[in-house]
Amino acid sequence: MVEVTDIPVEGYESVKRVYDAESGLLAFISVHSTVLGPALGGMRLWNYANEDEALTDVLRLSKGMTYKAACAGLNLGGGKSVIIGDPSMKSQAFFEAMGDFVESFGGSYITAEDVNTKVEDMGIVATRTKHVVGLAGKSGNPSPKTAWGTFLGLKATLQDVYGSDSCAGKTFAIEGAGSVGSIYADYIAKEGGKIIVADIFDESAQRVAAATNGIVVSPDEIRSVECDVYAPCALGGSINDDTISNFKCKAIVGAANNQLLEERHGDDLRDLGIRYAPDYVVNAAGLINVYDEMADGGYNEERAVENMNSIRTNMHEIFAISNEEGISTATAADRFAERRIDSVLASK
Ligand code: NAD
């Protein structure tokens, strides 16, 4: 038996919990906003300690998606789904039940792969709903696109800080030599930037250093090395009370999600004179890419890549808002997103 329960949450359009005794599925879907369009956000599978933790996460993530899509100029709202469990629980019935749950939103929520869910899982979801993107044979692996979009955000930031967008002769501290960090480092090095890289897996860092003629430091050192730009491309929360006074950079531009441990750390960076490129603005190219699947006629890579240029122009606008209003770039990005949502609301 499948039990679906509505959970009223102020400021959210629709939040639901599902429990399917047969497959063991216990999940939440949150639609934060559909003001700009259907709420798109991935399906995360995570071993949450309890339901409260999962609910808190789905609310936070779905709201984040609203801001990310709004900043990227996409006609998309913000949504997310989280499943409580781990990859060992995966089964056909599990994702079929999840497909039915997505379908029950009637298109106001569109899902995609996320942490611990894969393209093949979405293939099963797609047997029950058409409201799923990121399927095999369509827009493909988002990481190279995310790296490119982050590089465009870097260009805007270098222009703002140094009056030139060139990486040549500047030093970049890359934390995380994974799918995005390795390609981002490549773009920078090709333009003459010097790479310092760290990863908890030394061989990943060594590989990137070899490819970019860079050097490796330990993960402990990367946040305090002398550099022009610190580039967090690993996990979130790397800008926090313990690290903030150690940064020796002029700017922070990386792909990791939720880089500021708390919102106030954005203000601290401003006080320190470090230009911060808000994570959800510069790492939006994966979303821009997958959004293109929804266009009439289907995915067109050239158009998707062209649309990523908005990251660069949006960053310039966000810097201008930050300067004019005397606020952090993180708050400026939120205002930029809210203005777009408010203007659409006002015209309705
Ligand atoms: P990934 O798992 O391929 O790479 C992350 C790398 O960071 C790994 O090599 C890992 O060993 C390393 N790492 C982990 N902890 C570290 C630490 N403390 N110090 C140094 N290195 C550490 O992930 P990815 O796909 O490259 O994504 C990187 C970040 O960008 C993540 O925060 C992700 O949420 C975000 N992001 C990715 C995409 C995308 O398209 N892949 C899109 C938007 C945001």
In words, what does this structure look like?
This protein has 348 residues and is α/β, with parallel strands linked by helices. The protein has two domains: 2-62 and 77-125, 3-Layer(aba) Sandwich (Rossmann fold); 143-284 and 312-339, NAD(P)-binding Rossmann-like Domain (Rossmann fold, 3-Layer(aba) Sandwich), CATH 3.40.50. 41% of the residues lie in helices and 16% in strands. It has twelve helices and 13 strands. The protein has helices at residues 51-71, 92-103, 119-125, 143-162, 179-190, 202-212, 264-272, 279-282, 285-291, 301-307, 310-325, 329-346; strands at 2-6, 14-20, 25-33, 39-40, 43-46, 77-84, 109-110, 171-175, 194-198, 215-216, 229-232, 251-252, 275-276. The strands form two sheets. Strands 1, 2, 3, 4, 5, 6 and 7 form a seven-stranded mixed β-sheet that branches. A hairpin with a 7-residue loop joins strand 1 and strand 2. Helix 11 (310-325) crosses helix 12 (329-346). It is globular and about 60 Å long. The two termini are 40 Å apart. It binds nicotinamide-adenine-dinucleotide. Nicotinamide-adenine-dinucleotide (NAD) is lined by residues 142-143, 146, 175-181, 198-201, 204, 219, 233-236, 255-257, 283, 286. The site of nicotinamide-adenine-dinucleotide has 25 residues, from helix 4 and helix 5.
